[in-house]
């Protein structure tokens, strides 16, 4: 979710509970656009992280301390001079804007009580942290915005501070039914877009949620709503913002598998298809969401080179496979040429000189057949031509069968590496995949570097019945799990017919309950290319029946007489060790 006004409202509620009447003990500026305030409160010491980063503006309470530069920046020194040991008297949000204002009392050099205001604007690339006096005049800001950068508002020392209202949006907490109707019907656009462009603090996700709880499609235009539908929609809108006004917040993150895809401070009824994790504080939610998101983003960025190598090799092999398949198709008539040669040997004695075809009885099918002839050649020369063509296509057929099998194995292997990149969670995972690609000849080892020693371990889960389940994250781990870690009576699981992880359940000689079979099947489904499907077919068999063919690529196995189950890929209730 965008860092919208409702999220800001949740943060303001939490900060008032945690920081109000606290004293600012330390002020640090770890980065050019970040502040870290240490605040002593009756409830203990708190750290407040503020970021005006254009790419990721944030504000939340944290336990993590960040190292500061040896020499404090000018803005940090200014804040230390004015509000160090200042008391936070109020924290508020104007008109559900993406703005948080801190009212601070402090004593000046003469011991007189003064008031200052620290304003944090969370507005994407326009985010800023602005320091003002009690008359609303800017003392300084973490980012200066001169007239050359913005024609709407200058953010410079000595300028008055004001909130620009360029979009002419209204406060959803105070809007009347008549204003609501007038605002929306004046906009010839879908209802969802009309909502978030008309009111402050509403993101597209919240607009979609308001339409969903009202039972009205977001694609419909406001002018198409009847009077009763408008009244119903306004009532649902009011109820939703009553919860915001009353501070009835429930921070929640929505996951697709293990990847966070959205967060909200009020549950989203149209996100029921995703796994949920609830939090007691919005700060904890934001820290978890963005740290997890950043980890996944960083791993994807670091894996881009490997993905490029794998994708290029896959495209090349798929083109090769298509070409070889077409060539194999061209050899389907080879038996026909053999029959032509044999029939010419049988009936060639009565062919007239210069004949262009021969009609003869095919003694294999007992049907008449027409054989084209080269009129410049004798019957025996025509027969030899057909036998030569047959032998050539036979050799091509045999060679292509081998080549197609090799190409298909390469495609299957590369798809399994691609799947391993999709489930990689750490840099060690990527190192192990890279080492595998080096050993397979897809990546060259630089500067005759020695083989990298990696102690990366498979994923480890505990079933509801207490059985240990292990999941390989790449082909090398799959190989290790299946042929070196598992013993004969352990159970082996794999998604049928698609790239995926080997899943091993350690039985310790015991019989597995049905629930453990289902949970292991879900893990095999989740860590496969069919992740996210409602129904995934899983093969499972005792490990002793799983074999590795000679000269097969890592992770490639064969098995017979296996069992199968159909299962979903939801592992949200699985406990990872």
Which descriptors apply to this entry?
seven-stranded antiparallel β-sheet, five-stranded antiparallel β-sheet, 13 helices
What's the gist of this structure?
The chain is of the alpha+beta class.
Describe the secondary structure blueprint for this structure.
Blueprint: H1 5-19, E1 23-28, E2 34-41, E3 44-51, E4 58-62, H2 74-83, E5 87-92, E6 99-107, E7 113-121, E8 128-133, E9 138-141, H3 177-185, H4 191-198, H5 204-214, H6 227-245, E10 252-256, E11 259-264, E12 275-278, H7 282-302, H8 304-330, H9 334-347, E13 357-362, E14 367-372, H10 379-423, H11 427-439, E15 459-462, E16 468-471, H12 475-485, E17 491-495, E18 503-505, H13 514-526, E19 536-542, E20 563-567, E21 575-576
Antiparallel strand pairs: 1-2, 2-3, 3-4, 5-6, 6-7, 7-8, 8-9, 10-11, 10-12, 13-14, 15-16, 15-21, 16-18, 17-18, 17-19, 19-20
Helix pairs in contact: 4-5, 5-6, 8-10, 9-10
State the distance separating the first and last CA atoms: 30 Å
Rg, nearest Å? 35 Å
Q: Indicate the structural class.
A: alpha+beta
Characterize the overall form.
elongated
Largest sheet: 7 strands, antiparallel
Average pLDDT figure: 90
How does this model look, in words?
The structure is a single chain. The chain is an alpha+beta fold. Helices cover 37% and strands 20% of the residues. The chain has 13 helices and 21 strands. It has helices spanning 5-19, 74-83, 177-185, 191-198, 204-214, 227-245, 282-302, 304-330, 334-347, 379-423, 427-439, 475-485, 514-526, and strands at 23-28, 34-41, 44-51, 58-62, 87-92, 99-107, 113-121, 128-133, 138-141, 252-256, 259-264, 275-278, 357-362, 367-372, 459-462, 468-471, 491-495, 503-505, 536-542, 563-567, 575-576. The strands form 5 sheets. It has a 7-stranded antiparallel β-sheet. Strands 5-6-7-8-9 form a 5-stranded antiparallel β-sheet, with helices on one face. A hairpin with a 5-residue loop joins strand 15 and strand 16. Helix 5 packs across helix 6. The longest helix is centred in the last third of the chain and has 45 residues, at 379-423. The protein is elongated and about 125 Å long. The mean pLDDT is 90.
């Amino acid at each position: 979710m965008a860092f919208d006004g409702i999220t800001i409202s949740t943060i303001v509620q939490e900060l008032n509970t945690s920081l109000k009447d606290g004293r600012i003990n330390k002020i640090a500026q770890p980065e050019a656009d970040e502040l870290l305030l240490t605040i002593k409160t009756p409830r203990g010491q708190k750290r407040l992280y503020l970021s005006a980063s254009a790419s990721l503006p944030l504000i939340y309470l944290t336990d993590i301390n960040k190292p500061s530069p040896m020499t404090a920046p000018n803005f940090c020194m200014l804040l230390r001079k004015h509000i160090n040991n200042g008391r936070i008297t109020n924290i508020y949000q104007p008109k559900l804007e993406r703005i948080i204002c801190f009212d601070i009392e402090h004593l000046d050099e003469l011991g007189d009580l003064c008031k200052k205001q620290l304003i944090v604007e969370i507005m994407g690339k326009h985010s800023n942290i602005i320091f003002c006096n009690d008359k609303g005049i800017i003392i300084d800001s973490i980012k200066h915005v001169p007239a050359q950068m913005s024609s709407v508002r200058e953010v410079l020392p000595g300028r008055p501070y004001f909130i620009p209202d360029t979009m002419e949006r209204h406060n959803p907490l105070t809007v009347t039914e008549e204003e609501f109707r007038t605002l929306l019907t004046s906009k010839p656009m879908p209802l969802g877009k009309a909502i978030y462009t008309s009111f402050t603090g509403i993101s597209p996700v919240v607009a979609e949620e308001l339409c969903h709880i009202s039972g009205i499609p977001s694609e419909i235009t406001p002018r198409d709503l009847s009077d009763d539908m408008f009244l119903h929609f306004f009532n649902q809108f009011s109820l939703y913002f009553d919860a915001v006004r009353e501070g009835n917040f429930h921070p929640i993150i929505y996951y697709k598998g293990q990847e966070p895809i959205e967060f909200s401070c009020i549950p989203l009824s149209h996100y029921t298809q995703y796994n949920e994790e609830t939090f007691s504080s919005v700060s904890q939610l934001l820290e978890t969401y963005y740290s997890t998101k950043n980890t996944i983003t960083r791993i994807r960025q670091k894996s881009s080179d490997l993905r490029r190598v794998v994708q290029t090799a896959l495209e090349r092999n798929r083109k090769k496979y298509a070409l070889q398949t077409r060539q194999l198709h061209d050899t389907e008539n080879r038996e026909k040429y053999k029959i032509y040669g044999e029939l010419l040997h049988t009936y060639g004695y009565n062919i007239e000189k210069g004949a262009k075809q021969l009609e003869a009885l095919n003694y294999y099918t007992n049907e008449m057949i027409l054989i084209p002839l080269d009129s410049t050649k004798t019957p025996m020369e025509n027969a030899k031509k057909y036998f030569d063509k047959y032998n050539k296509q036979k050799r091509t057929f045999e060679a292509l069968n081998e080549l197609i099998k090799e190409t298909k194995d390469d495609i299957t292997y590369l798809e399994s590496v691609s799947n391993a990149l999709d489930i990689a969670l750490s840099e060690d995972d990527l190192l192990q995949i890279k080492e595998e690609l080096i050993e397979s000849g897809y990546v060259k080892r630089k500067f005759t570097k020695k083989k990298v020693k990696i102690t990366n371990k498979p994923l480890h889960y505990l079933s509801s019945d207490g059985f240990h389940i292990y999941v390989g994250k790449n082909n090398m781990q799959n190989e290790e799990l299946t042929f070196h870690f598992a013993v004969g009576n352990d159970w082996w699981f794999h998604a049928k017919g698609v790239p995926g992880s080997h899943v091993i359940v350690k039985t310790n000689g015991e019989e597995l309950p049905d629930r453990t079979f289902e949970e292991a099947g879900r893990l095999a489904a989740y860590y496969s290319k069919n992740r996210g499907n409602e129904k995934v077919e899983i093969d499972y068999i005792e490990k002793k029946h799983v074999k590795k063919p000679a000269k097969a690529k890592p992770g490639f196995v064969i098995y017979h007489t296996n069992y199968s189950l159909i299962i979903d890929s939801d592992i949200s209730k699985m406990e990872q060790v």
